[in-house]
Amino acid sequence: MTKLARPITRDEINAYHTAGVVLLRGILSLAAVNELRRCIDDAVATLHDSPAGYDLTKITRAAEVNDKEKLSADSGGQHNVAAIMDHIKSSGKPFLFDDMAQAKGSYLLDTGIVARHKAFRRFSMSGPGPEIAGALLGSEQVNFFGDQIFVKEPRTRERTAFHQDATYFEIEGNDCCVLWMPVDPATLESGTIQYWRGSHRSGRLYKPNVFISQTPLPGAEGESLPDIEGHLSDYDIVHFDVEPGDIIVHHYRTVHGAGGNNSRYQVRRAASLRYCGDDIRFLTRPWAPKQLHHTQRLNDGDVLTGPDFPIVWRRRHEQEAA
Ligand SMILES: O=C(O)CCC(=O)C(=O)O
Q1: 213-236 exposure pattern, b = at least 16 Cβ within 10 A, e = fewer
Q2: Which of 4, 66, 241, 304 gives a 20 to 30 Å CA spacing to 187?
Q3: Where does the chain have alpha helices with state H?
Q4: Tell me, what DSSP letter sits at residue 189?
């Protein structure tokens, strides 16, 4: 039985492949949105329990006043925050902030929530995501790949630097999509995502960056991303104003970024769920962020298997023929 509020159309599938991004309006039921919102709120309330949970605003503020104590206190988890802040400083590239009077909100981030939150795991593995990925990727089966949450409270100055997900992920192939699932209305003002349309087809793999600056991650390989933030009108940038129930899906090579949250009252909460199809294989990328919740390590060329990458959807040929 379908978990979607409506079928995905042929035009939407074509848009995903051509533009590298598609808005699926009203694809989630109210119950699904409410379930995901509860999961995100729980994850935020327990962010300090997660070894990959970060308040990026507190970190940029600590870096600005050179609060070494705070930065080292945040360095025992997924990232060595103190070393990354030194690395940003020595790159000469600034933090990316929106110009904002009275910035008081936080940019909160967590990774691997499926390992610590039962309902979030259920939503990611058995909710609407796998079926959406199956339809857009056209694959025989879909593996779950990973998850994050991104919350920007009202008046959060930190932008999300333009980046390409592919080089943060230890995989290669074409069949990987990212579902950005907002549970609040989001507009340019409150930080909806902006996408460089068609960039997934360039064949380029760009160095991943530190997210709050254009500084590449330490040791990252690949091409240098251009200064998109500084020259937005030179690129084919699209964005979508979204409502709860809408999902934006992008190809994992589509370059994207976001502004801060300039709204006075509107929080912007979203989950990002990643799914892989038939041609994806494991590929070591030594600079990729550690996935502390993973229980195994695959070898280059392996198909995705095991408890970290479960099969979450299979095509049912008999049903399609009917
Ligand atoms: O929500 C954000 O600010 C970033 C989301 C993102 O980069 C992603 O889902 O890949």
Answers
A1: bbbbbeebebeebeebeeeeeebe
A2: 4
A3: 10-19, 30-45, 56-64, 68-73, 81-91, 118-126, 129-137, 317-321
A4: T
Residue nearest atom 3 in ligand 1 by C-alpha distance:
160
CA distance 125 to 119: 10
CB 84 within 8 A of CB 210: yes
**In sequence order, what are the beta bridge partners of 276?**
143, 176
What is the separation of C-alpha 221 from the centre of its chain, rounded to a whole number of angstroms? 20
CA of 151 to the centre of ligand 1 (A): 10
pLDDT of residue 319: 52
Question: What is the 272 CA–ligand 1 centroid distance (Å)?
Answer: 7
Instruction: Tell whether the torsion through CA atoms of 165, 170, 172 and 173 is positive or negative.
Output: negative
Residue pLDDT, tens place only, 234-268 = 999 999 999 999 999 999 999 999 999 999 999 99
CA–centroid distance, 298 to ligand 1, in Å, is 26
Mutate-to-test residue for ligand 1 from 108, 159, 160, 165, highest number of ligand atoms within 8 A of CB: 160
Q: Is the dihedral of CA 200, 197, 242, 192 positive or negative?
A: positive
- pTM listed for this prediction: 0.97
Q: What is the pLDDT of residues 117-141, one digit of tens each?
A: 999 999 999 999 999 999 999 999 9
- Which residues contact ligand 1 via a Cβ below 6 A? 150, 160, 165, 178, 180, 193, 256, 258, 270, 272
CATH topology of domain 10-321: Jelly Rolls (2.60.120)
Distance 297 CA to ligand 1 centre (A): 25
Residue 257 CA to ligand 1 center (angstroms) comes to 7
pLDDT by residue (tens digit) across 156-202?
Answer: 999 999 999 999 999 999 999 999 999 999 999 999 999 999 999 99
Closest-lying ligand 1 atom to the alpha carbon of residue 272: 9
How much is the average pLDDT of 48-57?
96
Please give the biggest Cα pair distance in the chain: 65
